[in-house]
Batch of 2 targets.
Target 1
Amino acid sequence: MGTTAYQPLVLVETSELPREEWLAYRRRGIGGSDAAAVLGISPFMTGRDLYYDKLGISAAADDENWVAKEIGHRLEPLVAEIFSKRTGLKVFQKKFMFQHPQYPWMLADLDYLVELPDGSIAILECKTSTSNSSENWWYAGKEIVPAYYESQGRHYMAVMNYGKTFFCCLFTDTREAIIRSIDRDMAYEEELIALEDTFWNENVVKQLPPEYTENGDLVMKSVQRLLGPAATDAPPVVITPPQFSRVKQFMQLQEQKSGFDAEIKKLDKEMARLKALIVADMGNSCKALYEDAEGNYTITYNPVYKQSIPKEGLDRLKAVHPEIYSEYVKTSESRRFLVKKVSDSAA
């Protein structure tokens, strides 16, 4: 697919569109922020989450991290202003949801557009984060764009037929901002469109959920979000032989890991003994220093303070002020996963 002249279609004007209607339009296709989930590289949601969201079965973690999302949304104008002042480039908005003319399921709702010196237009994506994530914008000392953001920019370039996307990320805790850019890559774009096409037409349209391919923590959150609390009165599930192959593999890895666990426990025990002796050498001090031919060393043992209510205090609160206890103490659910062989099969 070479670069050809085309203009994106306008699906809807968004400046005064109510949020519920905006979400309904987003479910008509794949947006830029969905691209990473389709590719299986999103740190926020699985492809299965996105699938359910498009079918309106389950919102894709809308209530999770809503404060961070709201901060990002409200600070978009500031991030755009920072970008404009840093680069000297004019930024502006087009309040539309755009649609690819050839692939109608490819949608784009852009933060800002940028007018380049030669009169051409580029895309600006405004991001907010904390400095803890700044390492995601570097690799081996070189400037990069995180893969999950890169896929968003490349999706937008495909829809809009533009050649460049800028990213400006403001770290809210340090007030530092970084600027990155990527140019259109037609090989990447072809693969992206092919994968999005498969997701939309083979999964969403045919209502066939995609397989889980992401890391275990992300998949577990997805499963728990979809299924909800444990059904303690539900009958046992009889799994199939293909499903049991996962159980068998888990048991094999569990046995393999137990050998490492024993060695780790020995190391932890010896490290704990040495740590206690070092702390004894330090006395009441929170810091110790050492210098030799190999270098200078600093050992710290700093206190960490946090507020908590001991169990005795909770028991007293429950007895003396049960109404306050009931109002503020919440029951949370955690589940323990266990696999064990209960018997050998009869010969």
Note: The radius of gyration is 27 Å.
Target 2
Amino acid sequence: MASSTTLFPFLSIVALALLATAYAHHGFSVELIHHDHPRSPSYNPTLSPSDRIQAEIQRSNARAASLRAYFSYFHEYHDGYPSTYPPPSGSQSPCHPPNSPHGTTIQADLFASTDNNYYMSIRLGTPVKEIIAVPDTGSYLIWVGCEPCPKCYKKDPLFNPATSSSYTNLPCDSKPCSQLTPQRFCVNSTCTYYESYGQGIPYVIGDLAQETFTFKTTSGSFVRLPGLVFGCTHITNGTSQRNTAGIVGLGGHPLSLVSQLGSSIEHRFSYCLVPSSLTKVMTSHLNFGSDAVVSGAQTISMIDNGRQSFYAVTLDGITVGNNSLGPINSTMMIVDCGSTLTSLHGTVLERLVDALKKTISLPQVEDGQLPLCFNESTRSDYGYPDIILQLGTATITLKPYNAFLMINNHVRCLAMKPNDNFSILGNIAQQNFHIGFDLASWKISFAAADCTKN
């Protein structure tokens, strides 16, 4: 294991920029593996299609709850955090869990459930170790489970930093460590992080470090990136790592993968999600640099939330077919690849449901979880309308497969739920859209696309 020095992080960042520049002009893309794809660590071949849908709904409910908890804490505490924090720098061990006598629980930017809908393969270290991690637009830190970690997810062996010649811990006075503030403390001169996933229940603790990451592109080539800053997790209560060995943060914070690659990828990334009906047989794409340019797109500014973790726009109106719902109060809508379902303010969702009932001539049935369901067994001409979202100056047309979810052979339901805190554009609504994020201009682009060919 390499020794930690203040100079090493600077040299590694320079090397990263020089190496990344070589491919930035061409860009690169990696696979996004759906939760129900046979290559997913969460894949369960015994589940029926109906079981899979119910599990997706439950994951989406958990994700929405995590987001609500985050915003609750964000508004309760100055700058999103309590004024006190567990171990003060240089004085405590990382072994004190949340709610211990050594401090109070915090809500960190990394708020998502790691039992997510998409995974990606990363390779780290020298020699390389492959890890299946969750890419998350709602998180800022890259982290993986590392040896030793008794409660980390262990479907495959954990990454062992002691066996990698390119691994180095970062010191407490390094710039990346200061960017963790306030969720950091110092142990034996090593920068140590603490990440909570909502009211302190799931959490991870580990060393902030630098390592060489390698990505296998969709073309079969490899992109090698030395000196990426990441978290090497050694302590967890287990619930934060149900089905993944780590997270790849894609948020706007300086420590996210996108921000670390920075100008080498022109500060932009995109993804294109294949329809739900194909996720068991096809993978989606996550794109960087020139591969992330979205052709024929509508581009709008995102809400400036301090450019930390999540990406959001304003929802200003909804049209069903050719009929507008009329004026609605503009609300923040988070564009979230980790949520299956779209969420709308309760009163807006009620108006949308009423409009759909008047438009769709099918028998209605109760589902118990989703607000509007139809029995398709008696008709072949279903008549589901397009739903158009007014996002600032952009209009996004949701086709029936973006707005409705087949629950079983004959029942199809509106893939939306109420949420009075904020709205969420879920990943069903995002399927067959090429969605691009430009962190330099803080803009988002939408273009309808055939993601099976992207």
Note: The radius of gyration is 22 Å.
